[in-house]
């Protein structure tokens, strides 16, 4: 087990200081990195694993909410529940209401969840709690390191499924009736979707017509003029029942009694649809969740993995004036300039390669890791690197420069490792 090598820069500062609001100014952000479409995965996209932990709040006498010790079969049920959730994310169902032109072969979000621990707390008050902050405080008091995985608090409160934020989920499934396990898995998959920045595809109005009010909590924005409008869910053809004289798309219907496969009803099997069946994730929804793992605070729960050697391609001149967590290597192609003014956190052993004639400018920016060490910047012939008030930290070999590259350095900090130049 390797210890952390000072990557707290990438992990905590990067994560906590980052927000997608206010919006960075760069064209690269406006057109690619800040946009859902810029993060839609394909078959080569790196798998992102999110660490989660379950926290069960029992009564003082250890009853009233799952008990693996007394009934080991309950652990098996929870493993099955997690399998169902991961299947929903990596082998998504086909859409019940397909939209022409939208890919039906992209059925893997390349996001999975891994349980890092099941924890039990004996506290009769919290056993019936609906308060995420109170649950979180109890976990923190017991062992704060348990909060390094995305927390799912399970209590025995009544009459609802639960609530969520980008920091935790609270769910009420202490009853633990096996008959409902599959529904519970679908509920958790839905709540995790919220944690990953997804909104509802319904707004609570049963006719679905856009009224801009948002009758139910947190619907996706549905104005086609908005840059992150989920066109692969809301676009035409309009359903028959959608009486949209205002020309706006219609929200879908929700309600557990609505059959997603009934063509006369415009409820769907979308993960965020709130109807029977929620196991379809659209390509843009996948992109939205992956954007959250690159840019939002929930990225701090990513499990450390080696950087994917499938390169993130920089084919056009770009300025990165935002903080981003990478899961794959970066390739700056020939004749292209990448300028970094924000903070880039690389995955373990990740590297940035500058092709022949590519340019990297780090101007007031920083590159570090978010887990263990990253490998560094590789310059090939005729590439150039300009560092001005830059920091390149926690790299095995921060700069690997072959002959005839141009290297200009001013006000640079490199912590941990040396600079190596291979000169003939
Ligand atoms: Zn919801």
Secondary structure elements and their pairing?
Elements: H1 8-17, H2 27-33, E1 48-58, H3 73-90, E2 111-122, H4 124-127, H5 132-143, E3 150-155, E4 162-164, E5 169-172, H6 181-195, H7 231-234, H8 283-295, E6 308-314, E7 318-320, E8 324-325, E9 328-332, E10 337-340, E11 343-346, E12 351-354, E13 359-363, E14 366-369, E15 376-379, E16 384-388, E17 391-392, E18 399-401, E19 406-410, E20 420-421
Parallel strand pairs: 1-2, 1-3, 3-5, 6-9, 7-10, 8-11, 9-12, 10-13, 11-14, 12-15, 13-16, 14-17, 15-18, 16-19, 18-20
Antiparallel strand pairs: 4-5
Helix pairs in contact: 3-6
Bound molecules: zinc ion.
Zinc ion (ZN) binds next to α6.
Describe the structure.
With 424 residues, the chain is of the alpha/beta class. It has two domains: 47-304, Collagenase (Catalytic Domain), CATH 3.40.390; 306-421, no CATH class. The protein has helices spanning 8-17, 27-33, 73-90, 124-127, 132-143, 181-195, 231-234, 283-295, and strands spanning 48-58, 111-122, 150-155, 162-164, 169-172, 308-314, 318-320, 324-325, 328-332, 337-340, 343-346, 351-354, 359-363, 366-369, 376-379, 384-388, 391-392, 399-401, 406-410, 420-421. The strands form four sheets. A six-stranded parallel beta sheet has the order 6-9-12-15-18-20, with no helix packed on it. It has a five-stranded mixed beta sheet with strand order 2-1-3-5-4, sandwiched between helices. It has a five-stranded parallel beta sheet with strand order 7-10-13-16-19. Strand 4 (162-164) and strand 5 (169-172) form a beta hairpin. Helix 3 packs across helix 6. The longest helix has 18 residues, at 73-90. The protein is globular. The two termini are 39 Å apart. 43% of the residues are buried. Mean pLDDT is 86; it is low at 1-6, 8-21 and 417-424. Bound molecules: zinc ion. Zinc ion binds at residues 190, 194, 200.
